[in-house]
Queue: 4 jobs
Job 1
Amino acid sequence: MADGVYVREKSGHIVDTNTALCALSGYTRAELVRMHVRELYVLPETEIQRLLDVSNGAFQVRGEWQLKCKDNQRLPVEVSSGFIGSDRIIAVIHDLRKRTASGTRLHSAERLFALMESEINDVLFSLSVESEEQYRFKFANSAFYRATGLKPHEVVGQPVQAVIPEPSLAQVLKHYRQAIREKRVIHWDETSEYSTGIKHGEVVVMPVFNSQGACTELVGRVHDITERKQHELALERQRNLYAMLSQTNQAIVRLHNRDDLFLAVCHTAVRYGRLQFAAISLLDPQSQQLRLAVKYGADADYLQFAQIFAKPSDVRGRGPAGEAVLTGRHVVCNDFLNDPRTQPWHELARRCGIRASAAFPIRLSGQIIGILSLYASTPDFFTEDMLPTLSEMAGDVSFALDNYAHRADRARLARERDQVFARVADGFLAVNRDWNLTYVNAAAGRIFGSDYAALLGKQLWNVMPREIGDRLRQAFQISMRQQQPAALEVYFDPWKKWYAVNAYPSQDGLTMYFRNITDRKHAEEQERIHRGEIDRISQRLFEVQESERRNLARELHDEIGQSLSLINMKLQEADTLTTEAALKQLLKEASATVIELDGQIGQISLNLHPSVLDDLGLSAAFQWCLRTRLGSDGHKVHLDVEPEISRFSDNVERAVFRVFQESVTNALKYAAATQINVRLVRAEGGKLLLSVSDNGCGFDVAAALQNARNGKSLGLLGMQERARILGGEVAIHSDPGHGTSVQFIVPGQERPIAK
């Protein structure tokens, strides 16, 4: 008979059971559920307490007792129990009536796994304990194989050393020994690299003991936190980039020799950049070898064995560091173990756990003298958004080296430093955690109306003008408290100037950059005014264009049309004055030509400016266009105009009609559309919405707009310009082979009612 299993609360009340326990005890499942465990056993109160006690968390034998059956029989059983989850206990009841050598041992781990696997989706496994250092996999669920990419035959029956990779193996074995030694559940976070990638997990291991007190199994669960860890690491890297740059700048101000600066930079990069290690190597001009100057971090000894050159003819000169020297630009390798450029160092890098690297040139007087090398233990570590900050840090180191090399010329170096800060911002200040100024450049002194040297040691808030002090105080205090950069724009009323203020916090204080943006603000205002003038001119041009079209249409209709009618009358009169057949035929043909020409001029007049738009509005103008301009293609257009839609200002109606004309013509002429849907409605906020969509061949919108800017086709630009002038917007969506959609939205300014 199989072993009985039940799950109970900490209080002792049973909440679930298996059929084997029902068969063993004679109770039904309904009778067992909610029964207290003391009702199942013949035990004194002291033994009941022992049965309930699972305080050490380990799954182990609790004792040999008598099971009280429903028919009052007493059965000898062995009871083992342990926690499942945080508030439930699972117990396994082994019938001792058929005691054998193996029957006295409780084989309950598989049952525990069956229950756990049905309730959770995490990685589950069990290990047989063969000795203090030898553990062998007995079981692993499907989640284990999905996470690791391993096959069952590569896991089950294999020792732990053959399954779990270094460097996490040493940590795993340590925790296994701890769980057995302390007889309790052990928790830890683990990071391992498999063929499926780097995995992060929360691991729980529980020891299982037999009746003799020997640990025979380890039962484990791993909750995958890889996605959360990656997200946390990305945010942390981004947050620490500014701190890294700020710390580097403070080190440049604080330190006065090269070696100390190099060590501080490497230390800052590892501490704030979460790198494996960092190093600075200097270029030997004779051998072109990069020789290690300073290193910091775990496995930094790698660089003492990895010979790196800056010669393309040498395979050891084609890696990131060598390429950075040769090109003068930063070089990134985000897959170190598979990149052919790093092949000479693959084996050494594998042993040291290197998965990504980046190299940044360091210069002295403009010449490359060395490389700042950064190494990470995860692939794809160096993202694009990190590189500008890291390059700036290397540039700051180069700037500091220039300062060290010309220490004798302190005055000139001070001016150069001020010029550099002036290029970054108009003013540069640094304060300690008590808000006392520790550095002020000359530009900052000018901003605050004082000699910069006289400001040192003063409280920032006593220097800052009151008009902006409160706002900056709040922003800076939040920046310090959250260790996050701050950026804002402020107006200095006494000097009538605008400044962009950037603050970068560190553990020691805050650095601030003040950039004068008054000219930019004035330029933006002038641009706004200029744009308004352009809009008014463009609007006037459209109005003049429409006026000229209207006048030309009227001239064609009234003057030339009347003249053609008069000519036709004269031709008909001449026909009555002759009897010669040939002449009559010529007069008849001439009259027909005049009539045809009169019709064509009338159509041209309507095309230039359809009078129906002025007289009856957009709906009638749309219908006229479909009826007279599209001919047999008119049936392809489905027109949906909001009933009794209002009349709008001339500018609005002309713009909407021209966009309608352009969109429908393009759909038929260029897109070979067979179905066009046109919709005109009042939209939210009193706006007017024209929507034209088709099932044509579509086009590349970006390419078409570029052609329009090059003067090849102005239709799309005309739509955009009309929308902008009226304070509206146009949205054009199209993909080759998937049709086109045009949405033209403008303020629905209604036409004033004529008095």
Note: Residues 100-110 have pLDDT under 50 and may be disordered.
Job 2
Amino acid sequence: MNKEILSTLFVIGAAICFTYLPMTCHQNLSNNNIPLSLSPFSLSPAFSSSLSNRKSNSSRSLSTRYHLSPPYLSLSVADMDGGVCPSLYPLHRCKTIHLVRHAQGIHNVDGDKNYKAYLSPEYFDAQLTPLGWQQVDNLRKHVQESGLSKRIELVISSPLLRTLQTAVGVFGGEGYTDRMDILPLMVANAGNSGRAAISSLNCPEIIAVELCREHLGVHPCDRRRSISDYQFLFPAVDFSLIESDEDVLWKENVREKKEELAARGLKFMNWLWTRKEKDIAIVTHSGFLSHTLSAFGNDCHPLVKQEICKHFANCELRSMVIVDRSMTGSDSPRTNYPGNIPSGPDLPSDVADQKIKKKDGSNTNSLV
């Protein structure tokens, strides 16, 4: 099929989209059933996993293609030919997020052998295993050696014991020594860890956020204890964003729907734009990551989609870039420079060319 026929088909398709998509979006919104594709930001891996395949695996823009008014439809010869093209965004409209799944918890060990173990009250708010703490130590070493520890400005943790232990163990300070002016991030032997206290000196702020909790309901391992208990175990962690001391979200007989979990994940991603920090580590859970990330990468190369959505191992860290395309929370650029200081004539030749054309209708194409 030649390009002329393809072009005609795409124009017809565009007309249909512009006619019916706004109506569909309006109906979905009126029913409180917001499509995941309406997310006003995009997400992509921060680094390519295969340099040798960079040309063949280059992704299209991961920005979702539907807006409420008007919908965005990108049509080009490259798209028609199945080609790919890069995306370009202002740096100050981007954030780098470093997604971390918690280290191995005691529930993971028996749950790997028998799924019903996740239903056992024995694993209420499961803590890390000794192997899990080894995983924490290894990730901490990687974060320091790679330079990430100097870049990360904020750490966000799900308010469960295993994620808090992972967050303070990986991103916290060194060993804590008693002093009046500094609180420890974690007290000694928190959650029967057998670990020494961890200092809050020389490390980014760590805050607990309910939105990035694991799949809610039924599984006791995903039920949190009271915030007052956590504040005793993790004195320097900020729990101020959590409104209820007791866990009012977890239900014994009601499991959160997958669609609800995915929507919660997108709400969390949108909330990130209320933060001024640009490099943010997020310590969370497998279910939360899987259902949240599944909403992204649908308009890119299948291998990039796979890279975004693949299952997280315990204590795995994966860096991604999110882009604000809606002006929701973008801040002023830090690195841009206005130029023309001191000021002086700086009329570009192409602008002068256009001015001359408008003035006398000439066909000047060679101004320099």
Note: The two ends are 43 Å apart (CA to CA).
Job 3
Amino acid sequence: MSQNKLGKMLHQIANLTGINLSDDRKIVNHSCHRTAIQMLKDEDIPEDEIMEFSDIEDIEVKEFEYFSGNS
């Protein structure tokens, strides 16, 4: 899948889910990854399960910011 097509898909997903990108913010694959990790942490999913899902070795809360479309 091309980078351009992926970018368009992410933009459509953001619009469909209510994330406001009207201030020219860009949403990229990394944004989605960070948001997914933060949402899992917010739901008290064990860090070892998050690490397995996300394919990262270490998780610290301060490293992840929830991507809010309304801020």
Note: Residues 66-71 have pLDDT under 50 and may be disordered.
Job 4
Amino acid sequence: MSETEGQPLALQTIAKAGQIIAAQIGFDGVATALLNASLDLSGAARGAVVLAAKGDLRLSENGFEPGLPLVSKLKPEGTLTDLPSQVMRAVVETRAPHMRALQSESSATVLCTPVLSGNALRGLLYLEFDSSRREATSAAAAAVTLLASQAALTLDALAEFGSQREEPVWRSRSRSTGSIATFRWNPATRLATGSPEYYEMLGFDPEGGPIDFVSMTSRVHPADYPTAQAVVDDIVRRRAPLRMEFRIILPSGDVRQLLWSGQFDLTNPVSPELVGVVMDVTELRAADDLLRAAQEDADRQLRLAWLGEMAGSIIHEVNQPLGAIISSADAAARWLERERPDVEAAIKSIQRIREIAHRAGRTVADMRALTSKSSTEIVDRSMNSILGEALQMSSAVLGRSDIRTDTAFDPNRPVVSVNPAQLLQVMLNLIHNAVDSMREVRDRQRILSTRTRTDGGLVIVEIADNGVGLPGGDTGRLFNPLYTTKAGGMGLGLSICRRVVHAYGGTIAARPNAEFGATFVVSLPRAE
């Protein structure tokens, strides 16, 4: 199935290979299917696939990080130490495909492509070409990049439904998430063609010929159009790989969520075309929303239950000494109200009040310690991962509110020493406050911008919205207990955020944006 020199690979062939990958129900199957399809399509003489069974794929000085659970497949048989670490390290650091000639007596060329899920590196696809038999081409690079994207989608599905993998149900789910279509788009003519599934997915007649750009973009949901247009303009300008997700509205009024992935075929450098696959992920995203809504509800109920338990404990622990203080105060008053006041007895009652008050103070201090930083585990954690997890947990409410997210994470992945659960709650609180601030916006696209960066020894997080903005005056009051700008708000969220951030030696501040909305800035010491 490999292509002849100078001819693009058949889209149907790529689609069929992608469907085989999508139908797998385990990491081992995904790795095997990806390797076999890539070798078959590209004509490479040798190949390897390495997948991280949990978390990101990471490299140490001597190869893959020790202790990291890996799933690997090599053809012909061999070991991971046989692979050139310099090429793999370049892909891990840049998150982009690399093609280069090996510095050896052979005339081999290697191509290494990342298996990316968002910004998470799930694995690597390595191919080695014997130049005397088959050259590495840009068409082959584009094809295997598409297959790597399909593998990442399948790994995401495996991770999400891993706890529910009864085989019949899982195979049905794999088929539904693996239904994909292929397309080819020429930026010069702005015409697109594709498989029959592509026309059906967008609601066009396959017999109508190529789809013009205006007709194609007319299907894009108005709230998603600015982002989609900006992404397309950017990849055309840079000849960069495509990966984006947006909604379309079909002529029937049905709204569908589509995930696009593609690569420029540089076989014709004068007029390169974007070749890719598109997947309908509507049901998958609906399942995501239901799952996250259930998680949010469970989290809310857990917090209410915890507050109820804590309130009951406080009432019990404080009510007893208060009753004793009142009794002792009444006794002291009675001793002093006698015809001949018994000052000594009154003093004893007052001393008892002092002892009870000190004991109550110690009780309150003990309860405070239960909820303070001293009772939590402090670990080193990437600020990018904490903020990324908060965004993922908030994706349902962001989607329902038609909010576009712009992220700019520090590529160096700065690390802080914190309790991740506490800092995650801070990020969630700030994100949800931003959502509330944009709820009444009707005249512009709602945008949530998140950024991580470093400044000297500090790791800085910025969360910005283009909502209604901050009230005039001292923005420091926002973090005071019981101060709120929301109707029905309790004024505790930002106060708790400040307490958590201060506990780790950091600061939190807010500032109004130049035009719309506000920016909240959290600064924390960078881990040693």
Note: Residues 1-9, 162-178, 487-492 have pLDDT under 50 and may be disordered.
